[in-house]
Design goal:
- This protein has helices at residues 5-24, 29-39, 73-88, 105-109, 111-114, 145-176, 183-196, 250-276, 281-308, 432-448, and strands at residues 48-53, 58-62, 96-98, 118-125, 131-139, 200-213, 217-220, 225-230, 237-238, 243-247, 312-314, 319-322, 333-334, 339-344, 349-356, 368-373, 381-388, 393-394, 400-408, 420-431.
- It is α+β, with helices and mostly antiparallel strands.
- Helix content is 39%, strand content 27%.
- Strand 18 (393-394) and strand 19 form a beta hairpin.
Length: 450
């Protein structure tokens, strides 16, 4: 169906009016950013959109996402691009495309990695010529004049609403913290707050976790080849010695038959030479050579037979088969040692925890843990921390974390293997002021570089 230009323009105008209405109806700066990044695609086709606020200095919203990891490599790169554009072009009101030469050398070096096509900068410049923030839009193509004017209009409306929210936050603070008229009451309140700051509390850390097998038996490919089929579906119980997978045998069977025939031919030649040796001296000299060749062919045959005997993969222990999908392995080539599936006992489970780097300093082995499963978050399962990795590693979301393991309490029933959730790790008791200001102080230290 071909959409006429008039209809396309009418739909874009309708979407623009709706976006401006939604922006005016936003309750706070968070809702404003959410509306911006998730509504721009209605008027300008884009891959992603990000919003940055100057008063916070952070990326506040990303299209298609609920939470933002400000420590990830990609998020920090975009935040630096925002700051660069706000610093170099603070008075610009018209959206423009960002090219690598507009950025510093370190940011331009990663431009092609983070931006597959085009990147546009949309400043949120208020009526007072103050830059309240900006929008970065990842595009498949460059902006045309109509899209530039539409984005400028949306940015003007967003900047006006954003300035209103910021003024409302500032004006609302005195209403919350009304001064107390009695001086002695003020002093008594300050003393109570100061005393409360030294109340010892148990420090805790929250980290993502999942239930994993404690002593899994890994079944890997014994040789290079192709998987014929997986005989057990996921989570099926298997017994020790049961065949769980088979590999293709055509090539191996052919290699064995060829080696076997060559060995048989040499054995026949050796028998003839042995018989001739009684009558001919020349035949005696061939016996040693034929015997060595026969031993070589027999070794090749035995090797081919031994490889042929390993095409059936058997379960080394009793347990359940852990794999994503048995059908995805059919016809798949594998290398020697490549993991195919895991067999584990459901009753032998441990807790795998990924502790954020900024919280690892308060974690010690032997600490108490409560695991809140996503399936039943109202019923925490107790565990004890056993070990923490000495070095951090990069996770799939580009964050750094320490991998830790914990064992479940004997009185608890371990959750099903693969269940995810949140682990609450308890540490030593610390004063209340330390628990409140530890993270802000660490953030200030990283920001100032000391």
């Amino acid at each position: 169906m071909i959409v006429k230009p008039q209809e396309r323009a009418l739909k874009r105008l309708s979407a623009l009016v709706q976006i401006e209405a939604d922006l005016r109806a936003s309750a706070d700066v968070s809702e404003l950013g959410f509306i911006l990044v998730n509504s721009l695609h209605k008027i300008v086709e884009n891959e992603h959109a990000l919003v940055w606020y100057a008063h916070s200095g952070k990326v506040s919203a990303v299209s298609g996402g609920v939470s933002i990891d400000h420590d990830s490599i990609q998020t920090r790169w975009f935040a630096n691009v925002f700051k660069r554009m706000a610093k170099t072009q603070p008075d610009q009101r018209v959206p423009k495309e960002i090219l690598p030469e507009h950025l510093s050398a370190d940011l331009a070096a990663e431009f092609s990695t983070n931006i597959p096509a085009h990147l546009a900068w949309v400043p949120l410049l208020g009526t007072d010529n103050r830059l309240y923030g900006g929008i970065l839009v990842l595009l498949r193509r460059t902006l045309d004049d109509a899209e530039t004017r539409i984005l400028e209009r949306v940015a003007n409306a967003a900047a006006f609403v954003l300035s209103f929210h910021i003024r409302s936050q500032k004006s609302g603070l005195p209403n919350i913290l009304r001064p107390i008229g009695n001086r002695w009451v003020q002093l008594l309140g300050l003393a109570a707050v100061a005393f409360a700051m030294f109340i010892p509390i148990e420090l805790s850390v929250l980290a993502p976790a999942k239930s994993a097998p404690s002593n899994p038996a890994i079944i890997s490919a014994p040789l290079d080849g192709v998987i014929r089929n997986i005989l057990v579906p996921p989570n099926q119980a298997v017994t020790r010695g049961e065949v769980v997978a088979r590999m293709e045998t055509n090539e191996l069977q052919a290699a064995f038959e060829v080696a076997n025939r060559r060995a048989a031919v040499l054995a026949a030649d050796l028998r003839r030479a042995t018989q001739k040796a009684f009558f001919e001296d020349d035949a005696k000299a061939q016996i040693s050579l034929l015997l060595a060749q026969l031993r070589e062919r027999e070794a090749e045959r035995d090797l081919a037979q031994e490889r042929l005997s390993r095409v059936e993969l058997r379960a080394p222990i009793d347990g359940v088969a852990i794999l994503a999908d048995q059908n995805e392995w059919t016809g798949r080539p594998v290398r020697t040692g490549e993991r195919i599936l895991i067999v584990a006992k459901p009753t032998e489970a441990l807790l795998e925890i990924l502790i954020p780097v900024e919280d690892a300093v308060v974690v010690e082995e032997g600490a108490k843990i409560e695991f809140f499963s996503s399936v039943s978050p109202n019923k925490p399962i107790k565990a004890v921390l056993e070990r923490v990795a000495y070095t951090s590693s990069v996770q799939p979301d580009q964050t750094l974390a320490f991998r830790a393991e914990a064992r479940f309490s004997e009185a608890e029933t371990p959750p099903r293997l693969g269940f995810t959730g949140t682990a609450k790790i308890f540490s030593d008791k610390v004063p209340l002021y330390y628990a409140l200001f530890r993270k802000p102080a660490a953030t200030i230290r990283r920001t100032l570089g000391f």
